[in-house]
Amino acid sequence: MAKPRSVARSIRLFADRTLSPAALSAKLAQIAIQERNALVKSGEAPPHWTTTVDGRLGAPETSVRPDGFILYKFNTLGLAVKAALQICKDRSPVRSGIYRDTWIAAVDGKPWRGDLSEIPDNVEIMIVNPQPYARKIDTGAMKGMSVPPGIVEAARQYVQRQFPTVTAQRAFVSIPAGLFNNAPYILRRSQGRSKDRAAGKPITYPALILTKRI
């Protein structure tokens, strides 16, 4: 699982007096691009970033001054989602495999069906399992469960440790009708004293909410 060392990397090159200013700029740009591509290829950084050259956002690397700098800011939100989903699946109890395979990420309230690495960094992600027994599994109320409860909390803690630029929160959420198959589940009888656990009410689901830290 990728563990990015940083989300921003500044690349400088000490001046070589044998090179012309133009050659120095070209060399710095070449090294920066090679280093960036190596990070992406290794999985340490996602394939999405912004480039700042000498303080100019979006400028090409080749425009760097001989004594300037190139700054890449990588979007790690997609990597955090991928890691959190894997934690949830790895910790899920497995009988038929349905629960383990039902974990899904919703971006701004809609299921994300594309490449997780392409999730933009200015959105809210909800990782949730829409199975009707998801709450019981996560809180430990499921009888005969073969794994410890707290799946969502385990994923939250992992994200907070490994992705300092991402905010992770555990919450009980409502799922609108039509968002996922068979959700929301409507309680057939009251469970406990809470009003949201009364018969006829849709249940809420434990979810992990991920956003970019501001």
Characterization of the model:
The chain is an alpha+beta fold. 27% of the residues lie in helices and 20% in strands. It has a five-stranded antiparallel beta sheet with strand order 6-5-7-9-8. Strands 1-4-2-3 form a four-stranded antiparallel beta sheet. A hairpin with a 2-residue loop joins strand 2 and strand 3. The longest helix has 22 residues. The two termini are 25 Å apart.
Strand order within the widest beta sheet:
6-5-7-9-8
> What is the H-and-E element order?
EHEEEHHEEEHHEE
Rg computed from alpha carbons, rounded to a whole number of angstroms? 23 Å
Query: Considering DSSP H and I runs of 4 or more, what fraction of the residues is helical?
Result: 25-40%
In angstroms, what separates the terminal alpha carbons?
A: 25 Å
Largest sheet: 5 strands, antiparallel
**Which structural class do you get from the secondary structure elements?**
alpha+beta
- Give the strand tally: 9
Please report which band the strand proportion falls in: under 5%, 5-15%, 15-25%, 25-35%, 35-45% or over 45%. 15-25%
Average the pLDDT over all residues and give the rounded result: 84
